[in-house]
Amino acid sequence: MSSFGFNSDLIFSIFLVAGSLVLALVLELIGDFVFKSGKNKNATLHYRIAYNLKGPLVIFFIISGLLWSVSLLDFVVGDFVLEGSDRKWLKSALMTTWGVLVIVILTISISRITSVFLDWYSRKILKKTTTELDDKLIPPLKRVLPIIIYVLGALQLLGYFGFSISPILAGLGIGGIAVALAIQPTLSNFFAGTYVLTEGALKEGDFIEIEGGIAGYVSSVGWRSTKVRDRFNNLVIIPNSKMAESVVTNFYSPETAINLIITSGVAYEENLENVESVVKATLKQLLNDSENVANNTEPRFGFSEFGDSNINFWIFMQAKDWPASFQLKSEIIKSVHSSFAKKGITINYPTRRIIKD
Predict the structure, then answer these.
(1) Buried b (16+ CB within 10 A) or exposed e, 158-172
(2) How many domains would you assign to the chain?
(3) Do 245 and 284 fall within a single domain?
(4) Which of 29, 131, 162, 298 is spaced 20 to 30 A from 320 at the CA atom?
(5) Cβ-count burial 95-128 (b if 16+ within 10 Å, e if not)
(6) pTM > 0.90: yes or no
(7) Does 184 fall in a domain?
(8) What is the per-residue pLDDT across 160-219, written as a single tens digit (0 to 9) for each?
(9) Cα-atom radius of gyration of the chain, to the nearest Å?
């Protein structure tokens, strides 16, 4: 009848296994109590990280305890004793297994930490930032970063088992160059989109005019293109490479207010002091009544030149935004014309005086 026994390291191995199980149990039970708020996605960052690392750490401690305890034992089965080269092979296999475990747990942990951080950033920080770069960058990062982390972990495993990863990296490099050449226009738009987003000069809702005549409201700024809704309500898709190379006028930056300058003139016979008084009173009334005037702006008036038929003047006011500028301009013209008519102030038609000898 065969017997199965262990050497004197049995007690230490049992304590090692028991210790790892107790540690895992503490993490599982007490961790749930301490980090229970980490289950909530709105919890603070460190609670979320601790909660998501609990599972991998429990597995790591249990398997590590078992592997290390087995590596310390001398096995005796009947007349068979595991010793010498066989024992070295077993220890080597156990250490290799433990190394694989470390790489796998680290890969999973880094992936989880990254995902938790990006999720926390998108919930807590994203809405507070003024730039739109992170709005566009975070969603693809959530999808791409875990893949990159697991690929790097797989390469690390291959290197751990003695496989040369240099040819793999070289192949990936050559393949990357080929792909980059094939999608060069797309990459050009992508990097131009990165420039547009990081600069923060454009955002949704801005009214812009691009060199070449395209003008309208920005619908969206993406990695490949910028979409603009023009004055005729058509959607114009502009490649970001063109946006980066063009002169773009943003009528909503640094503020939405639009300056208006209107020119006209009065007859030479008119009293200019009276004209100035009438126009300023009209503009002041318009400032109080019109919804299209920008807040905290004062209208300005001045005479500019002696014209062919009139003494010309200019009026300056600020509209609250681009659409309001058209309406405000119309209101100014109607109000000034009405005031001139009431006061008998004349705006001459263009005339020529012909003198015959």
Answers:
(1) eeeeeeeeeeeeeee
(2) 3
(3) no
(4) 131
(5) eebbeeeebbbebbbbbbbbbbebebebeeeeee
(6) no
(7) no
(8) 777 777 776 676 666 666 665 555 565 565 666 666 666 667 788 888 888 877 888 988
(9) 38
